[in-house]
Design brief:
- By secondary structure, this protein is mainly α.
- Among the domains are: 131 residues, no CATH class; 89 residues, Butyryl-CoA Dehydrogenase, subunit A, domain 3 (Up-down Bundle).
- The protein has 14 helices and no strands.
- It is flat.
């Protein structure tokens, strides 16, 4: 056989074999994917079925719990569980409807089956969560109600205990009134009377709870017992506040003693300042603190330690701030004095430079540069006469800045004039250079800009 023909046949066979192999491999991959998708769909179907059964049972049990709750607690107490059961049953109805669609005679696509199975799982999960939360809440409430008889007994014991503390609180107030002013005792002076009123209400609530227990109205008995317990706690807090007042007052007295010692040290520091540094805020703060200390009660007098501590602390803080501000100002002034000499020297140098530029070139320098130079000279004079070192420093720096701006503006004016009179060399700070024509151009430029030629009459024709 012709070798060329043989080669063609072999190539064709290879291509055909490769095509067949690729086709077979692709078909195998599709079969694998189909099997995996079918397995996943089967698992989802099993999950949906399990969820339906579990949720249906939980909702049924929640319905039973609802019946017990209504009987024991009343419809109002069971309203949350009732709404949750109603919502869960609606979701279950939708889930069962989808399950029925999945098993009727109408064929469904795999995509529909996946969506509906997933929806069933989601509906069941939502129904489970809704009823589970409310069932727990109702169970806790029923447990409270079952404890109502013991709760009523406990609140009665607490009621009697707190009633016994009223007289003790009144005795404590009487003792405190010998040491502290009426204003100091004002926060707790009426506490025993208020506590008695609260305890009276608590007693009526406890009686109502006992009556409802006898009528087998346990939920109402529990509510009344709760109200009584809360009221007894409030009364107890009022009476304890009377006892705690004495402790707080003693703490305030101790803090006041320390504050007095600190204030005297602060006064000594403030008085040690030079008179010119004390003038103003420091003297005013010293007077206020001295007045606060002078107004403190003498030994044996009734006191208001909390108010006294507050006043002395406030005056002490004000003096601290005033002294600190003054010391900071002294430090700033010391720093300013150290910088003032160099700042004045710098301003003088800047002004001398600007004055040199203006005086050397005169006519080309416009009014802006001259105005800034005049301002700089005025600021320097003010800086030399200023007594406040901080203001003097700021003024000297402003003078240097104005002088530098004057020199820059003057040089800009000279440069522009040099462009209009190319024969001149005004922009060169070293002065005129070159031959007589250059010097003549500079002179002419200055004379023209200064308006001199107009005053010389026909002499201007000499330069025509």
């Amino acid at each position: 056989m012709d070798p060329a023909l043989l080669g063609g046949v072999v190539a064709a066979l290879v291509v055909a074999g490769g095509t067949a192999g690729a086709f077979g491999w692709g078909r195998s991959r599709r079969r694998t994917r189909d099997r995996e998708a079918a397995a996943a769909l089967e698992r989802l179907e099993q999950e949906a079925g399990t969820a339906l059964v579990r949720t249906d049972e939980r909702v049924r049990l929640a319905g039973d719990e609802l019946d017990f709750a209504v009987a024991e607690l009343g419809e109002a107490e069971a309203a949350g569980l009732s709404a949750a059961v109603r919502e869960a049953r609606e979701r279950l109805r939708e889930a069962f409807h989808l399950h029925q669609l999945l098993h009727d005679h109408v064929p469904d696509t795999d995509e529909q089956r996946r969506d509906w199975f997933a929806r069933i799982v989601a509906l069941c999960r939502a129904a489970d969560e809704a009823v589970a939360e409310q069932v727990r809440a109702v169970a806790a409430r029923r447990a409270d109600v079952r404890r109502a008889p013991s709760a009523v007994e406990h609140v009665r014991r607490e009621l009697e205990r707190v009633r016994g503390d009223v007289a003790k609180a009144r005795a404590t107030l009487g003792r405190l009134a010998e040491r502290y002013t009426d204003e100091a005792l004002l926060p707790v002076a009426d506490n025993p009377t208020q506590a008695e009123r609260l305890l009276e209400f608590a007693g009526r609530s406890a009686d109502l709870a006992t009556a409802r227990l006898g009528e087998q109205r346990v939920a109402e008995a529990d509510g009344a017992a709760r109200a009584a317990a809360d009221t007894v706690r409030r009364a107890d807090g009022l009476l304890r506040a009377v006892e705690e007042f004495e402790v707080e007052a003693l703490r305030a007295e101790s803090a006041l003693g320390a504050m007095i010692a600190e204030s005297r040290a602060e006064l000594a520091t403030a008085r040690a300042l030079p008179a010119h540094q004390r003038a103003g805020a420091v003297d005013a703060a010293v007077a206020a603190l001295e007045e606060a200390l002078a107004d403190l009660p003498r030994p044996g007098e009734r006191a208001d330690p909390v108010a006294s501590l507050t006043r002395v602390r406030r005056a002490n803080t004000a003096l601290d701030d005033a002294v600190a501000d003054q010391l900071e100002r002294v430090q700033r002034e010391r720093h300013a004095r150290a910088q003032l000499g160099p700042a004045l020297d710098d301003a003088e140098r800047q002004i001398a430079t600007a004055r040199s530029v203006v005086d050397d070139y005169r006519a080309p320098v416009g009014p802006d540069a001259r105005t800034r130079l005049a301002e700089a000279e005025g600021e320097l004079a003010r800086a030399r006469g200023e007594q406040d070192p901080e203001r003097a420093l700021a003024t000297a720096r402003r003078a240097a800045t104005l002088a530098a701006e004057a020199a820059t503006t003057a040089r800009r004016d000279i440069a522009r004039a040099g462009q209009r009179y190319p024969g001149g060399t005004w922009g060169d700070p070293r002065g005129p250079r070159g031959g007589g024509s250059g010097a003549l151009g500079a002179v002419l430029g200055g004379m023209v800009l200064g308006g001199i030629l107009e005053d010389l009459g026909d002499i201007g024709d000499m330069f025509g």
